[in-house]
């Protein structure tokens, strides 16, 4: 029996004897754990790179930062910890890094038994050291070289009794990032350069020392910030969408004063949907137009110059007017993808020049043939690939699947499923494309996991021609 087969057998025995003995009330049921076993067994042929991490708490947001160390190929991510008020002191926004030097050549044999996770060997030259490695098993390599996954660099304690829903990075100045709170419509803006790192000996800086506080709804504690995004065409404009339906635009250049940290008056405001705004997206090459995904009013287009809704449309199916995610195509700003909150996870692709008639409609739940995988799959996230204009990512809030689609056929718009990531056991909270590799994705789930993964070249061979 080969080393790989021995490792898989060892994993299976451990799962059979321990992991599958669960309380009946546990939401990660036997079927989900069996699906995870099957996925894990096949991971060596499914991926060119896979790195799995257990977080202490689930993260509702994940962002890839535009930092790139070419020598180590490190990736930097901004995530959060969501405790549901169980441990308020654990509510944090975390800047973490991972060395991905093994992309695209990673060792998928490195399954570390203690944490039951795939991990990356710290030393990239292991396979080149023939004299010491020839007689060693994968487990011995892991013990000797000590695998390294996410390495937290900054942990920012979130303001007391509040939790972080979303994070948005200012791509014009990546040291600035905004966080959306679960109370008072609060937005907190941090400057990374002014935050204490975990390894710092400087203790006089408060870890929750935000630079700017935008108070969006001081009269209602229950109002949450569901979404927020920086305007890449304006260096200091931030949009936030609230659970009470308010859209607020904050032009920091106009309102900022050196002796002030809290601001209560946005530069533009409108009520888009009384039941809430779930997502928003700026048109990539326009400095004043942004699309809104609403709870009951489907999709609307807001113009900050007139401070009005200038375009709106409803879904042709009245039962699918709730929208959880919207994203404009970076390569063709007229194209927008809309992910619905219905049970099938409907995805509509629109051309805003003819907004009322979608050019493509399909469901995230398509191709879910496993009887134990939920067919009720609201969309939690959709996102266009930053490198390929035809590639769209969709994530399920219930099935825990992240899917990659090609939405353009030979002569027409037609969806084609390219790849499904099935390593999460609960629904996806957020996911994002990597900014430096066309096929690498980071995804977070309610099961407290964060995965960084890249489909095997053999799975998408035609896109490497």
TrEMBL record:
One of its GO terms (cellular component) is nucleus. It is found in: Nucleus. Keywords: Chromatin regulator, Nucleus, Repeat, WD repeat. SUPFAM superfamilies: WD40 repeat-like. GO terms for biological process: chromatin organization. InterPro entries: Histone-bd_RBBP4-like_N (IPR022052), WD40/YVTN_repeat-like_dom_sf (IPR015943), WD40_repeat_CS (IPR019775), WD40_repeat_dom_sf (IPR036322), WD40_rpt (IPR001680), WD_repeat_RBAP46/RBAP48/MSI1 (IPR050459). Residues 35-98 form the Histone-binding protein RBBP4-like N-terminal domain. Gene3D superfamilies: YVTN repeat-like/Quinoprotein amine dehydrogenase. This is Related to Chromatin assembly factor 1 subunit p50.
